[in-house]
Each structure stands twice: as C-alpha cells, then as structure tokens.
Input
Amino acid sequence: MKQLDIDNFNQKVAKKADANRQLVQDLRKRKKKIDGVFHASHYEVFEEMDCLTCANCCKTTGPLFLDSDIERLSKVLKMKPAIFIQEYLRIDEEGDHVLQSTPCAFLGHDNKCIVYEDRPKACREYPHTNRKNMHQILKLTEKNALICPAVDKIFDAIRIKLG
Ligand code: SF4
Ligand code: SF4
Output
C-alpha cells in the first residue's frame, strides 16, 4: 500500500488555495443547493480512497470530544472520565474538549485507530462532506481541503461538475 507523501500533498494543495477560495465563493452563491454535488462527489472519492494510506486527519488535527465520547472512551480504557480528560484532552478557545497534542494518542503505527469501534463522533463523520446543509460548513471544508486528500479530490470533482 503506497502511503501518502505528505510533503508532496502539502505543496500541491498550497498551490490550489486560491482556486479553492474561488470555488467556495461560487458554492456560497448557490446557497442551499449544493448538498447533491457534495454528496455525489464524496461517495465517488471515498469509493477509491484508502484512509489507511493516509491518516493525515489523525496526525495533524483532531476531533472534538463530546461528553458522550469521553464517557464511552474512558469506559473502554477503564479510566475515570476525569483521568481520561487529564491524560489526553484540553479545552480549546471555543470551550470544547480537544486533543492535547497530535498525532492522536490513539493512532497506531499502521495508521489504524486503536479505539476505532468507540472513536469520537467527529472522527466517524470526518471530513463531513456527506452531511446535510453543506453551505453551513464551507469555510471548514475549505480548511479541510488542506488536510484531507479526499476533500481535495472532492473539490476537484465539484469543479469539473460545475464546469
Ligand atoms: S479522512 Fe481524509 S485525511 Fe483522514 S485518513 Fe481519510 S483521506 Fe486522509
Ligand atoms: S480517535 Fe482514532 S480516528 Fe479519531 S483522531 Fe484519534 S486515531 Fe484518528
């Protein structure tokens, strides 16, 4: 399995930042009518994508942890929630629990998540390109295009579809 060349990816996406900004502006004008094109492109891209060759999301950013995530994970790890928080999490500027550091402590050397079955909701849903109301998270999705090769490809697919 060929692993993602992160330096190459970073160089490639840096050059696309202006085009991505333009695409997001165009999508904003279409307001709520963009879910269809996002969802179709999401499923096409993830059909081909092998996240085990990448794990860039787990290496460079992290999910926010809901109370329900903290409860579930601390139970699985046989820790008290307060100890789990102390061990792995911090509070960010928006008051959410996030990882203290990246790569995520639960990422194995083989790019597998060691708590996969019980991973946070945000990890299950990342990169969120198949959710409803994509117009509400265009800014976040533009940021994710710099982290996630799948979002980069989804943007390319949307550019082609919209002409
Ligand atoms: S979701 Fe995106 S960044 Fe995360 S492993 Fe898959 S392709 Fe890579
Ligand atoms: S909990 Fe698992 S899926 Fe979520 S960031 Fe950590 S390693 Fe990745």
